[in-house]
Task: inverse folding
């Protein structure tokens, strides 16, 4: 089987290297024009170029904004403290109030729970000692069930938190 191809393929005669050179030349001219525009814009602005520079407090003649020091907190641990020189200006000469330290007391709740546990033990002993009387055993078991229910409600962290006394 023979195949015949129709078409004009004369455009492939240009060299690949020439195409690449033309493309690079166009990119270079574009970069040059952008650099000229940037230089002109830089010259036209009257603002100086921003730079970082260290200026000591002695040269400024001002006190620093704040002072940091290493010290110890109330527990003896190392801590960084900030002494604000403007504190007097803000608070009209008054110091900032120190945070209050509160202590929680759960003794009352613990005492309730201890009494309930003792009552539970007493009822269990009474049930064991009253082996012959069925009516008395049922009453004691009802009381024991009530005490156990109350104990399960009170002997947990959420109840302790709700009934803690802070001072």
Result:
């Amino acid at each position: 089987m023979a195949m015949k191809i129709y078409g004009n393929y004369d455009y492939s005669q240009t060299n690949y290297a020439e195409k690449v050179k033309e493309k690079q030349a166009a990119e270079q001219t574009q970069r040059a024009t952008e650099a000229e525009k940037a230089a002109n814009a830089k010259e036209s602005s009257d603002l100086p170029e921003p730079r970082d520079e260290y200026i000591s407090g002695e040269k400024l003649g001002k006190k620093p904004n704040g002072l940091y020091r290493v010290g110890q907190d109330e527990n003896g641990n190392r801590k960084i403290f900030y002494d604000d020189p403007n504190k007097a200006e803000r608070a009209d000469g008054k110091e900032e109030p120190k945070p209050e330290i509160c202590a929680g007391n759960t003794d009352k709740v613990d005492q309730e729970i201890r009494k309930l546990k003792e009552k539970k033990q007493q009822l269990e002993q009474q049930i064991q000692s009253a082996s012959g009387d069925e009516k008395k055993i049922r009453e004691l078991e009802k009381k024991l069930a009530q005490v156990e229910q109350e104990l399960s409600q009170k002997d947990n962290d959420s109840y302790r938190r709700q009934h803690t006394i802070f001072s």
Notes: The chain has a mean pLDDT of 80. The first strand starts at residue 67 and ends at 72. The chain is about 50% helix and 10% strand.
